[in-house]
Amino acid sequence: MAEKEIALLNEQIEKLKQQSFDLEAWKNQTLLFLNRIFGGSHPIVKMVLDLKYDYSSWHLREATGNEKSGDPVKMQAHEILDAAILELQTLGLPGQTRSGDIARELLQQEMTGKQWKELNDTLANQSENQTIEIREKLSQLSKEQLVEILAGILNS
Question: Which of 34, 47, 63, 104 has the smallest number of CB atoms closer than 10 Å to its CB?
């Protein structure tokens, strides 16, 4: 999983709570991390880029005339980073595919339709003999096919 990336983003959330908070410095540092994690075209990167203070009177006071209780930019930044962390926890790093998905894709390419359907059915049905059944299905493949599959997994 993306533990290091999540830890970086949690550190940025903590910086939002500092007394000497500087939005532009925080944005620059956060954008460096987000660009590396998600890439420059990700919507989360654009949201952080768009963060800014609006000093118009409508934004500084609510309709009742009372000052807002929290800093809206900090709250928005916190929510953006929370969404980024949730995405990393749920979906993993962008562009990162699980090895099981790669193996299945390569197996599907090397097997006939019937072989793939039988193997897929075996994988879907959890049974005590599942490993034995999978071995039987894979033993039907040629050595060259198995080498291609393994090379594809290692190369990914």
Answer: 63
